[in-house]
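Running low. Invent one:
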Amino acid sequence: MSQRSSRVRNVFLPLELTAVAELWGSRFGIPVEAFSGYRFFKKANSIWAISDVELPRLSYEAIGMRIMNCKDRPWKPTTAALQVFGKYAARNLVHLDADCARVFLEGKSQEVDEAAAMECEPGYVVVFYRGEVLGCGLYSHGLLVSQIPKERRLASREE
């Protein structure tokens, strides 16, 4: 790979805060104010967030925190990003009890009752336990599929 093509791949393109906030607001009801103090960049199929500072003009492999993957439709929020911004969510929330939270953190799928997933639309959801964000889940028709990254999962009790 030539040095020039390598540089092009490593370009982080600035994004307007409103563009990112509109996506998160439409899916999760997170207000635009939750994103103040951050700057956003796009690189390939990912959106990244950093604190609101100026970066030197260098080539970077990664900056800040990856907050979403835009490769597929719909876009997917990262667990790390939901742990920062998910506390502001007002829609598409799933609240789990202790046993269900454990299953979720083990990376397993499970059925959840209507009370846990009140008014959730099919798609990505913010998963809570005792008011704290655990991470990202994929919800459809009563089934919650954990999106916890493999390297962050709890060891399964069954193994």
Observations:
- Confidence is low (pLDDT under 50) at residues 1-7.
- The radius of gyration is 17 Å.
- DSSP finds four helices and ten strands in the chain.
- The longest strand covers residues 132-140.
